[in-house]
Design goal:
This protein has 358 residues and is an alpha+beta fold. The protein has 14 helices and 13 strands. The termini are far apart. The structure holds zinc ion. Zinc ion binds next to strand 11.
Length: 358
Amino acid sequence: MVRVQRAMRVRELALIRVLDERGRIDDSLAAVDGVSIREVRQTVATARALEDLPSIAAVAAAGRLSDAQLAQVVRVADASDEHLWAQRAPDWSPADLAQRARELRTPTIEDAQTRRAARELRTWWDPDQGMLRLRGALPDVDGATFEMVVKQIAEGMRPAPGHPWETFERRSADALMRMVEAYRERRTDVTTTVPGAHLVVQVPVSGPATVVGIPLPDQMVETLRASARIEPHLVDEHGDLVAIGRTEAVVSAKVKRAVLLRDGKCRIRGCAVRGPLDVHHLIPRSWGGTDTMVNLAAVCAGGSGHHGALVPQGPYILLGNPNQPDGLVLLRVDDLPALAQLATEHAPRSARAGPDAA
Ligand SMILES: [Zn+2]
């Protein structure tokens, strides 16, 4: 029965494609068929994709792919590798196929900005219960950082001798309050209670880097890289771990300390933030910048700080000599006249010496 149903579904998709080509399908079909508009759109997308994927269509027609598997595999396969996916897909769960589809597409910095723009934390009182209720959403890196820190604090909370364990949900709530109290008492050592808390960004051989399975734009990975430690994992052709290399900081701890000591605060003029600070590459590594003191400056950290507004992630560039107290200027990367003027000011003396220089 399942096989027959699935085979019929493939024939239905072929018919939908024909109607679609004749412009006979729109969202109103949802009402007629008693399905959601989203379902109609997904069905049309599957029907269109299937046209260029004959091997997958054949496997589906033989009843070997569920509707959910079919909807995802057409997002993963293209004409060059569809014969391989036709063999593999019946053994993959729809969730794994969906994850693969997400990983295949490296998000743009605009995608990351859209995600960031959707961040929120709402609180409202439930007066009958006397409880403050929370609801919110945090984007990729912020979300992973929040989850990691709360989890580590909660896991570190042990019951007093003779007392039972509190549930993980209760300890997570306590972890949140511990962070709030630490801030209120102006203590900054809340993170010292979670030794070795570090965010893991997976950088695969091909495809985008991910944090907890969520793909990140390349520019964002580069911004994170300056404060990263890299642990190389050697994998075989199936992606299975063969060996783990020595963990090393991208910018050495010594250079980082020297930069933080030299700067002491965010180096954006007018910004008084003294922490948390990130070490920022004035000229990004991918543009040929180095890991030396003259190319590094402290800026206030994270997506909410100045770091996220700077290249390669943001539209601003901090330029000049960080070793001088007023040596840095902030410019927009698209402000060519200002960049040209800065280049002239910083050119070697001989280049500026005109006929009357003597
Ligand atoms: Zn700042």
